[in-house]
TrEMBL record:
UniProt protein name: A disintegrin and metalloproteinase with thrombospondin motifs 3
Binding-site residues, Ca(2+) 2: E14, D213
Domain Peptidase M12B: 11-215
Main location: secreted
Subcellular location: Secreted, Extracellular space, Extracellular matrix
InterPro entries xref list: ADAMTS/ADAMTS-like, ADAMTS_ADAMTS-like, ADAMTS_CR_2, ADAMTS_CR_3, ADAMTS_spacer1, MetalloPept_cat_dom_sf, Peptidase_M12B, TSP1_rpt
Disulfide-linked positions: C88-C137, C131-C210, C170-C196, C237-C262, C248-C271, C257-C290, C284-C295, C318-C355, C322-C360, C333-C345
CDD domains attached to this UniProt entry: ZnMc_ADAMTS_like
GO BP term, pick one: proteolysis
Organism of origin: Buceros rhinoceros silvestris
C-alpha cells in the first residue's frame, strides 16, 4: 500500500478506532461501519476549521469492533479513570510494532454507549499525550453524530488544549460554540476553535513527531459528500436519544433544519433536542435537503440567495493585561447565508480594537521574549533543548511569525506559530503590533492607522524642543580583576552610543540595574561582535582594532550599568558615551554635559498642482501646499506648520489645446414659470 502525500504544512493523526459491543449492537453489524466512517469524517472536518490555525488531518487507519466479553472487561461503570486506563492499555497491545506498517497508529479513539462516568460525562482523556505509546488515547461516549464534537474535544486535550476559560482567558468563547468549552455546546451550524486552543496547540504541535509522516491509502467505502444523504431525521433522532425516537412533529411551523427536535411515540408532544441542526444533506422536504441549518432545494438552479451578515458578537477578553493587547468581535455570514451560487458577504468577519494600552507597572518585560522563553522546556531543535531568545526576522512579512534564536548556538528556528496578538512587529517601532499574523500600523497616539511618531526623546508628535543630548567621557584604571563599574545610563534614554576612546585589552559589559541581568558580556560569555535583542530593544556591538562600540536606538525601559571587564591591571580604560533623553529625565550631572537638541523647524512648500478645471480649451489649476520639515525636506502632517502663514495659492493656465469634441456648457437660468408656489 502506498502512502498518500499530504501538504508540507499538514499534520496527520493516524487513528485506531475501537468500538465496543454496545455501539455495534445499537447500530447493527450491517450499518455500523458506514456510521463510524461518517462520524470520523465529521471529526476530520472539525479539525479542518480555519479557526484552528494549523492544518490537521484525522486519518482512520484501523477499526476494531469488540465482542461482549471484552467490552465489559474494559469499561468499568462509574469509574472513568480506570476505564480510560484499560482502554489505553488495550490500544497499546493492538499497536503494530513496525512504524512503517500501514495500520500503525499515532492515536486511539474508543467509543462506547456504556456509562463509564457520572451522568453527563461525555469523554475522558489525558492532556498532552499525543504520540506517547500508552497515553495517546481517548474514551468517548457515543450517542449520535454530535459525538464527533466530543471526540474532537477529547483529542484536543491529548494535543495539549485546555478547557476554554479554565487556566486561560477564553471563557467568553464558550457560548459561541467553541470546541474546547468545558461542557461541549458546539454543533454542526456553530462551532469553532477558540484563540486559546490555537495558541495551546501551536505550543506543543511541533513536538509531536509521529504526526509528520504521510498516511497510507486505505480502501474504506466511499461516502457521499454530504453526510446526511444516508441518514433521515428519524434515524438521527434514534442515534441521539435511543430506540423509538423520531423527528418531533409537534412544531409543524418550525424549520426542521434549524434544530433537530425528537420525540418518542409514547409522548409525542414532549420533544427533546441537542441544540444542533440535522446533518447537511438530510432530506427536509420533497426535493430539498438541510444545509448549514437551512432547508433548501437540491437543484441549485431553483434557488439562489446572496449572503448577509448576522449581528456582531460582544468584544472578547483582551489578549494582554497591560502593554497593549487586542480584543476581537466576530460576525457570521448567515442572515441569510449564501446558497446555490449566491454572493458571499462583502467585508470582514472580525473586528478588533486595542485594549489595556497602559504600560505594565513592574520593570519592563519583552512580550516576544516571553513567548520564546516558554519554548525552553519542550521545543527540541536538532535533537537538543536550547535557551531561546527573541529574534526579529529580516523579512517584514514574517515578523508576526514567531522566530527565536538559540543562546547556545546562535541558530534561528521557526516556532511554527504566529506571534501572540499584541506582540510588537519590530523592535524599531514601539507601537505597531501583530494581529492574527499580520502587522497593524499603530501610531504613538495608540490609534490604529495613525502616522504620528515620537520625536528623538519620545514625545508623541513632538519637535525635539524637550530633548536633551547627554554626553561625556569616563576614565578609570583597574587595580584588580573583576567587573569595574564606569557609569549608569537612565531609563528613557534613546539613541545611546558608547565607544572606547582607545584600543585596550579590556571588554565592555552592560547589565540591567533593576534585575542584575547581564545584557552584554556576562560571566562566561565570549566577547564577539553581534546584533542582539535584550531589554526589549535592539543592540549593535562591534569590535574593530580592539576598539569596542555599542549602540541602541532604545528607549531603555530600565536603567543600565556600564562596566568593563579588566584583562590587565594598571591599563587605562576610557569610554565616551552619548544619548538623548527628555529634559524631565536628565540626570543630575554637570550641566556642561547636557546639550539642547536642535529643534525641528517646518515650512509650507509646494506639494502639487490641483486638477485642471477643464479637460481642453484652456482651464486653470492652483498650487497645493504641504508642510515640510527643513532638516530633511520630508513632508509631514500640516499641523506642524499651523504656526506659520500659509502662502496664497498660485494660479496657472492648463489644457490649452482646442477641444476636438463639442462640450456641453450651461447657459443662464430662464425666468421662472410662476412667481410663487
Amino acid at each position: 500500500r502506498r502512502r498518500r502525500h499530504a501538504g508540507d504544512d499538514d499534520y496527520n493523526i493516524e487513528v485506531l478506532l475501537g468500538v465496543d459491543d454496545s455501539v455495534v449492537r445499537f447500530h447493527g453489524k450491517e450499518h455500523v461501519q458506514n456510521y463510524l466512517l461518517t462520524l470520523m469524517n465529521i471529526v476530520n472536518e472539525i479539525y479542518h476549521d480555519e479557526s484552528l490555525g494549523v492544518h490537521i488531518n484525522v486519518v482512520l487507519v484501523r477499526m476494531i469492533m469488540l465482542g461482549y466479553a471484552k467490552s465489559i472487561s474494559l469499561i468499568e461503570r462509574g469509574n472513568p479513570s480506570r476505564s480510560l486506563e484499560n482502554v489505553c492499555r488495550w490500544a497499546y497491545q493492538q499497536q503494530k510494532s513496525d512504524p512503517s506498517h500501514s495500520e500503525h497508529h499515532d492515536h486511539a479513539i474508543f467509543l462506547t454507549r456504556q456509562d463509564f462516568g457520572p451522568a453527563g460525562m461525555q469523554g475522558y482523556a489525558p492532556v498532552t499525550g499525543m504520540c506517547h505509546p500508552v497515553r495517546s488515547c481517548t474514551l468517548n461516549h457515543e450517542d449520535g453524530f454530535s459525538s464527533a464534537f466530543v471526540v474532537a474535544h477529547e483529542t484536543g486535550h491529548v494535543l495539549g488544549m485546555e478547557h476554554d476559560g479554565q487556566g486561560n482567558r477564553c471563557g467568553d468563547e464558550t457560548a459561541m460554540g467553541s470546541v474546547m468549552a468545558p461542557l461541549v455546546q458546539a454543533a454542526f451550524h456553530r462551532y469553532h476553535w477558540s484563540r486559546c486552543s490555537g495558541q495551546e496547540l501551536k505550543r506543543y504541535i511541533h513536538s509531536y513527531d509521529c504526526l509528520l509522516d504521510d498516511p497510507f491509502e486505505h480502501d474504506w467505502p466511499k461516502l457521499p459528500e454530504l453526510p446526511g444523504i444516508n441518514y433521515s431525521m428519524d434515524e438521527q433522532c434514534r442515534f441521539d436519544f435511543g430506540v423509538g425516537y423520531k423527528m418531533c412533529t409537534a412544531f409543524r411551523t418550525f424549520d426542521p433544519c434549524k434544530q433537530l427536535w425528537c420525540s418518542h411515540p409514547d409522548n409525542p408532544y414532549f420533544c427533546k433536542t441537542k441544540k444542533g441542526p440535522p446533518l447537511d444533506g438530510t432530506e427536509c422536504a420533497p426535493g430539498k435537503w438541510c444545509y448549514k441549518g437551512h432547508c433548501m432545494w437540491k437543484n441549485v438552479n431553483q434557488l439562489k440567495q446572496d449572503g448577509n451578515w448576522g449581528p456582531w458578537t460582544k468584544f472578547g477578553s483582551c489578549s494582554r493585561t497591560c502593554g497593549t493587547g487586542v480584543r476581537f468581535r466576530t460576525r457570521q455570514c448567515n442572515n441569510p447565508m449564501p446558497i446555490n451560487g449566491g454572493e458571499d458577504c462583502a467585508g470582514v468577519n472580525f473586528e478588533f480594537q486595542l485594549c489595556n494600552t497602559e504600560e505594565c507597572p513592574k520593570h519592563f518585560e519583552d512580550f516576544r521574549a516571553q513567548q520564546c522563553q516558554q519554548r525552553n522546556s519542550h521545543f527540541e531543535y536538532q535533537h537538543s533543548k536550547h535557551h531561546w531568545l527573541p529574534y526579529e526576522h529580516p523579512d517584514a512579512n514574517k515578523r508576526c511569525h514567531l522566530y527565536c534564536q538559540s543562546k547556545e548556538t546562535g541558530d534561528v528556528a521557526s516556532m511554527k506559530q504566529l506571534a501572540h496578538d499584541g506582540t510588537r512587529c519590530s523592535y524599531k517601532d514601539a507601537y505597531s503590533i501583530c494581529v492574527r499574523g499580520e502587522c497593524v500600523k499603530v501610531g504613538c497616539d495608540r490609534e490604529i492607522g495613525s502616522n504620528k511618531v515620537d520625536d528623538k526623546c519620545g514625545v508623541c508628535g513632538g519637535d525635539n524642543s524637550h530633548c536633551r543630548t547627554v554626553k561625556g567621557t569616563f576614565t578609570r584604571t583597574p587595580k584588580k580583576l573583576g567587573y569595574l563599574k564606569m557609569f549608569d545610563i537612565p531609563p528613557g534614554a534613546r539613541h545611546v552610543f558608547i565607544q572606547e576612546d582607545e584600543a585596550s585589552p579590556h571588554f565592555l559589559a552592560i547589565k540591567n540595574q533593576a534585575t542584575g541581568h547581564y545584557i552584554l558580556n556576562g560571566k562566561g560569555e565570549e566577547a564577539r561582535p553581534r546584533s542582539f535583542i535584550d531589554l526589549g530593544v535592539e543592540w549593535e556591538y562591534n569590535i574593530e582594532d580592539d576598539i569596542e562600540t555599542l549602540h541602541t536606538d532604545g528607549p531603555l525601559h530600565d536603567a543600565v550599568v556600564v562596566l568593563i571587564i579588566p584583562r590587565e591591571n594598571d591599563t587605562r580604560a576610557s569610554l565616551t558615551y552619548k544619548y538623548i533623553i527628555h529634559e524631565d529625565s536628565v540626570p543630575t550631572i554637570n550641566s556642561n554635559n547636557v546639550l539642547q537638541e536642535e529643534v525641528d523647524t517646518f515650512e509650507w512648500a509646494l506639494k502639487s498642482w490641483s486638477q485642471c478645471s477643464k479637460p481642453c480649451g484652456g482651464g486653470f489649476q492652483y498650487t497645493k501646499y504641504g508642510c515640510r520639515r527643513k532638516s530633511d525636506n520630508k513632508m509631514v502632517h500640516r499641523s506642524f506648520c499651523e504656526g506659520s502663514k500659509k502662502p496664497k495659492p498660485i494660479r496657472r493656465m492648463c489644457n490649452l489645446h482646442e477641444c476636438s469634441q463639442p462640450l456641453w456648457a450651461a447657459e443662464e437660468w430662464e425666468h421662472c414659470t410662476k412667481t410663487c408656489g
